[in-house]
Design goal:
The chain is mostly helical and 206 residues long. It is built from eleven helices and no strands. Helix 2 packs across helix 3, helix 5 crosses helix 6 and helix 9 crosses helix 11. It binds a DNA duplex (10 and 10 nucleotides) through helix 6.
DNA sequence: CTCCCGATAT
DNA sequence: ATATCAGGAG
């Protein structure tokens, strides 16, 4: 499909330095941030992690404190009870099975509670520069459907569809650029179609 | 398919 | 006051 190559080229042109909006200094910080970003904006996650990362540096730091203390520190990201348990569970696995290191492959990342393919792909792509799949978050999902790149609604099916039509070397940046585009132009509520550089090739499937 | 939850746009 | 945003687990 020629259209997809055109889309890829235009995205790269307009978002030459797209990167994850999640502030982090190392793979562990990105993993925590990515777990917190479930059903929460990256902007909100950054507010919370600013203090969180000052208090907790190692997997053990997250395990030494009570669930309640952790919950208080991440409260505003929502689903804080689940997320706190998941973070402690993930730190437990990292310590017990991975010598304290964040895994750098999909199979092992998926063993961590609170980590499914979206979160794993974020960590793989932005912490390890590896692509075993494509990040399909709400932005990638919405825009892929609007552009007619998939008709599916299930994130895994969307990911498979995208993996078929996008060259593997573009997997990481394609998501990062679509997410940037989703925030600025192709927004969920009022998409700015008149300002969109993809407008002329967009069937606008909702 | 349901539950988990706060923040912000309308 | 309420709709909408934003993923994972059971």
């Amino acid at each position: 499909m020629l259209k997809i190559l055109e889309i890829i080229a235009l995205l790269k042109k307009h978002y030459p330095e797209a990167k994850t909006a999640l502030n982090h200094a190392n793979p562990l910080e990105l993993l925590i941030a990515a777990i917190l970003s479930a059903q929460c904006t990256d902007e909100r996650v950054n507010i919370v992690t600013k203090n969180l990362f000052k208090k907790y540096k190692t997997p053990l730091d997250y395990l030494k404190v009570s669930l309640k203390e952790l919950e208080e520190n991440i409260h505003s990201t929502g689903f804080y009870h689940n997320k706190s348990k998941n973070i402690q569970g993930a730190m437990r696995v990292i310590l017990d099975q991975f010598k304290g290191n964040v895994p750098d492959n999909m199979g092992e990342l998926l063993l961590l509670p609170g980590v499914a393919r979206k979160t794993a792909n974020v960590v793989l792509g932005s912490a390890f520069k590896k692509a075993e799949g494509i990040v399909v978050d709400t932005h990638v999902s919405r825009i892929s459907r609007r552009l007619g790149l998939t008709k599916n609604k299930n994130p895994l099916k969307i990911e498979k569809d995208l993996m078929k039509i996008i060259p593997k070397s573009k997997w990481i940046y394609f998501s990062l650029e679509l997410i940037s585009h989703g925030r600025k132009i192709c927004k969920a509520r009022n998409p700015l179609c008149k300002e969109c550089f993809l407008n002329y090739l967009c069937p606008k499937i909702i």
